[in-house]
Amino acid sequence: MSRQPHASISEPTWIRHTLITIALIFLGIFLVLPLIVVFLEALRGGVMTYFAALTEPDAVSAIQLTLLTAAIAVPLNLVFGVSAAWAIAKFDFVGKSFLITLIDLPFAVSPVISGLIFVLLFGLHGLLGEWLATHDIQIIFAVPGIVLATIFVTFPFVARELIPLLQAQGNEEEEAALVLGANGWQTFWRVTLPNIKWGLLYGVILCNARAMGEFGAVSVVSGHIRGLTNTMPLHVEILYNEYNFIASFAVASLLALLALLTLVLKTIVEWKVQRLEQQAEFPQLLD
Asked: What is the DSSP annotation of 6-68?
């Protein structure tokens, strides 16, 4: 066993350099180059044209709707994710495996199919369509449908990030708090939540990134009504189909900037978590 780590770090130099080169080429072609193309095309008409495309009324409406959808979906998924992860990691109950399966369902179902399910449920000719029309409630081809579709495709992210974290931490600290007289809420807020705050933030960042960039499910339920039900990804598609390439790439560059910001936040959280783990394991090294 003592020889295995030595063997893993004593590979020939040409092998390490080859693998690193392949990785860098792959990242350059499939990640860096597309980003460069997006920003170059967005600025091809000049800075004034770029900002004009972003301040155009339909673009502003798409940006506002995207932010509104994320602002509704992410907090709801935060509450659901924490509740589901807490229940799964800390308790045994009938239907636990079924709940885990439901959480993983959006990963297994195509976003387009999930959007179609909402159409079959809430559309005019859907299961609840007649009742909704009678009560003058519109879900499909309106903001509520977009929010519901976004919630569905993003709700696994927070829960899936917290479940293994809570399971790894065990129940000892919570049991100690209860023995000392804390109630359930006090135990959660003062013991459990501080231990999972970085994992929770990581899940929220991923959930927010998916909510702002979701296309398939939202495309099915939105109706593509310009200025009303178009999110940023849908607006990019419409502009591109109309051969308005500069405006299309301008809005796409804003999405790319949001993605890069998400990546930076994700990296910071990962670094913070890794540092805290090292500090807990080797406190004398970080003093």
From this structure: HHHT---HHHHHHHHHHHHHHHIIIIIHHHHHHHHHHTTT-HHHHHHHHHSHHHHHHHHHHHH
